[in-house]
Amino acid sequence: LADTVKRKEGGRLETLDRAGLYRMQTPQAARLDVWRDAFAKARGDATDDLALVEDAGVVPEVVPGEEDNFKVTLPEDLERARRTLGGAEVRTGIGYDVHAFSRDPGRKLVLGGADFEGEPGLEGHSDADAVLHAAVDALLGAGGLGDIGVHFPNTDPRWKDEPSGTFLAHAAQLLKEAGWTVQNLDITVLAERPKVQHRSAEMRANLARRLQIAEERINLKATTNERLGFIGREEGIAALAIATISRFEP
Ligand code: MG
């Protein structure tokens, strides 16, 4: 036994000498006539087959077992068996989103759930957070769950000016219900302005909180478009995202 074994009796805890202790695994083997004889005389309280042959006076030989040969008794054992046997299904999804800068001076810029004070906001039905929208589409894409427009149509007044963290949390919930775990999310922001890299820790934390995963599973990169095209002309901001999800095959 690798673990220290203790016995608790009343208020006392006692450390047992584990030198002579073994955990018994299956299969346990004996000659057929020994088994038959032992089972014929079986008592009701034996917890493994060997106990029966021990009762019949046979001294079994103990051989080393394997940690991976564990008993499936509780639901968590079944989960462990699935992990041990492999069979993990892995999928990826891609997301892209773009929003034009708004002419409304009162419109706030929100990217990755972070407020960028003093920067021109983006046009959109919700809060126009292109970073979270790309992330949502990557996650929905990986799960084969359509896209953000299917789940949150921009014709629905419920989503008017809605913080996009709502959409991200919903996508995470849909994946969870289908048995998926989000492994990682990699995002690129394409913008001439503002500079977002110095806010990446905050944005990653927002994403991690909504997805209920560790921050280190979320990466956020930023690039300009080298002054080319609509992004280069500062007409809007775009974001790309790729998500990897996995689950154990049922
Ligand atoms: Mg969008």
List the helices and strands and how they pair.
Layout: E1 6-9, E2 12-15, H1 32-40, H2 49-55, H3 75-84, E3 88-100, E4 109-111, E5 114-116, H4 130-142, H5 148-151, H6 165-177, E6 181-190, H7 200-211, E7 218-223, H8 229-232, E8 236-248
Parallel strand pairs: 6-7
Antiparallel strand pairs: 1-2, 3-8, 4-5, 6-8
Helix pairs in contact: 1-2, 4-6, 6-7
The structure holds magnesium ion.
Plain-language structure description:
The protein is α+β, with helices and mostly antiparallel strands and 250 residues long. Helices cover 29% and strands 22% of the residues. The strands form 3 sheets. Strands 3-8-6-7 form a 4-stranded mixed sheet. A two-stranded antiparallel sheet has the order 1-2. It has a two-stranded antiparallel sheet with strand order 4-5. α6 packs across α7. The longest helix is centred in the middle third of the chain and has 13 residues, at 130-142. The mean pLDDT is 92. The chain binds magnesium ion. The site of magnesium ion (MG) has 5 residues, from β3 and α4.
